[in-house]
Design brief:
binds zinc ion; 110 residues; 50% strand; four-stranded antiparallel sheet
Length: 110
């Protein structure tokens, strides 16, 4: 990432809340997948420092900073060609509620 690139604060939706993070225009286009909303689940793991605040549906309140990000790398074969590289979750730091989940696959043919 270029330091001089313009970062814009964007709302990222999850099933259990939402978060605000700074994205470049390029990332925004890449992650939006042609829909008008951005989803945490499509973005995958984003550096903690990129987040400004998040909202937890269970707590019903907004917190400053990044949600908790937990992940594992199962490297599990889904089919002959598709490998599940990473499985992660965004969680509320206060109550551990899941804000969003994401999966990252690798196509071994690519
Ligand atoms: Zn919470």
């Amino acid at each position: 990432m270029h330091q001089n690139e313009d970062l814009e604060e964007k709302k990222l939706l999850g099933s259990g809340g939402y978060a605000f993070a700074y994205l470049t225009e390029e990332e925004e286009l890449k992650f939006s997948l042609g829909v008008p909303h951005l989803f945490l689940g499509n973005i995958g793991r984003l550096d903690k420092r990129r987040f400004s605040r998040y909202y937890c549906n269970k707590c019903g309140k907004e917190y400053l900073g990044s949600p908790l990000i937990t992940y594992e790398n199962p490297n599990e074969d889904i089919t002959e060609d598709i490998i599940l590289l990473e499985k992660g979750e965004y969680k509320c730091i206060t109550c551990n509620y899941t804000l969003a989940q994401y999966l990252k696959f690798k196509n071994s043919i690519e």
